[in-house]
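Why do we care about 3D structure at all? Because function follows from shape, and shape follows, mostly, from sequence. That is the central idea of this module. The next example makes it concrete: a single protein chain, its amino acid sequence, and then its structure expressed as tokens.
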Amino acid sequence: MTHGEDQVAGLLLAAGGGRRLGGRPKALLEHRGRPLVEHAVAVLRAAGCTRVHVVLGAGAALVRERARLDGCVLVDNPEWERGMGSSLRAGLGSLGGTGARAALVSLVDQPGIGSLAVARVLAAYRDDTSLVSAAYDGTRGHPVLFGAAHWAGIAASATGDRGARAYLAERDAAITLVECGDVARPYDIDTEDDLGHLE
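And the structure:
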């Protein structure tokens, strides 16, 4: 029996600029007294990811300065303004050669998704062909887990803000859905109104 946590790397996409939030880097929005990026890394670790790669973009230098990200591999995405697809490509690229057999991808602006949901998705990992997605009342959401056999295909199709959506849509039948609606809320922090979700 192999341990998923040794083979699955956490990949946190934290490059977004929060255009509708006055351009503040989302990674540095405060939640429970800490920057969102620290909170999101802690969630991945609590769920069992021992290796965590964090993709930075908007305000990357500020994020490095202000957030405590010890032990994480920090990946700069100079093309972050092109959308989440470029961050996903940069992140998957950074995992090549690490021995990771899957990437568990989470988004920095979803603090309502905690370690219980992430651990469920991690537990569904089988091997490098795995495709796993959290679901909320049956609707696919984050986090998602991509076995390494899929990385090249996802990187090739990840454009704009679609991320891996097109790749996954073509492989719907192969995706293991893990219901997480009972333990997590999948809201995004995108607008001023959404800031009410932060504590």
